[in-house]
Specification:
51% of the residues lie in helices and 8% in strands. By secondary structure, the protein is mostly helical.
């Protein structure tokens, strides 16, 4: 029934054999089909940005993200795994600025917002194929043929809907950015680039705050909710981590 294990295994060749077996026999698809009647365990991949190359750190995160859905599948649960692509953010804009030889908001506006946005949408897919090959190599199972894409209008509208539901249902969740960066024209970017003391001062000035970093984050969340529901931000009580 079982083949004898060779003491002189070539692990790379063995990985490729297993990957081929999975692909040839649609093992990922079958693992879900055989459990359709089971309890649903939903998994949405926290998406990478496809305009940057995968690196060794992504091996760890991809592996961890794969372990939990696999474990739930082994328990008999139906685990649809939706892959995704993060197509928003400051890194994308900076990449396109370098590509076009632009520097700052004024030059972008001179170039034209619509063509700049078009270039950004093209840029985010630069390394998509590399990401897909990398994910297969590390054994990461997810539906990459039907991913969610964060620049898609349906996705954007669903996020605004979710934020409004959080407010209208009086759910005071901890909506917490981990890092914060401000460009020269005041654009906010969270957890995408390094936080410097200069940028923190810019954010303090933006919010009129001279207190702690946690207060700055709270101020941003209050302004977000205030804009969303047209409420007085002084009425909001948002928990946050300092």
């Amino acid at each position: 029934m079982y083949k004898k294990v060779d003491a002189n295994l070539n692990f790379v060749d063995r990985e490729k054999q297993i990957e081929k077996f999975w692909n040839d026999n649609d093992i990922f698809k079958k693992s879900m089909e055989h459990r359709k009647e089971g309890e649903t365990y939903t998994f949405y991949d926290g998406p990478p940005t496809a305009n940057g190359k995968p690196h060794i750190g992504h091996v760890e995160t991809r592996t961890i993200k794969d372990m939990i859905p696999r474990y739930q599948t082994m328990k008999g649960k139906f685990v649809p795994r939706k892959a995704g692509w993060d197509t928003h953010g400051l890194p994308v804009e900076l990449e396109v600025e370098k590509l076009l030889g632009l520097n700052g908001k004024e030059q972008i506006e001179e170039y034209g917002m619509e063509p700049f946005i078009k270039k950004c949408k093209e840029s985010v897919w630069k390394y998509k194929g590399m990401w897909e090959d990398f994910s297969k190599t590390v054994g990461f199972w997810a539906d990459m043929d039907n991913p969610y894409v964060t620049y898609d209008d349906n996705f954007i509208e669903s996020e605004w809907w979710a934020l409004k539901e959080i407010w209208t249902q009086n759910v005071k969740n901890q909506l917490l950015p981990v890092g914060i960066t401000v460009t020269d024209d005041g654009t906010l970017s969270f957890d995408e680039t390094a936080v410097s003391s200069d940028n923190i001062e810019n954010v303090k000035n933006l919010f009129g705050s001279s207190s702690s970093y946690g207060t700055i984050i709270k101020g941003y969340a209050e302004k977000l909710f205030s804009s969303l529901v047209q409420a007085d931000s002084s009425d909001l009580n948002i928990d946050y981590y300092a």
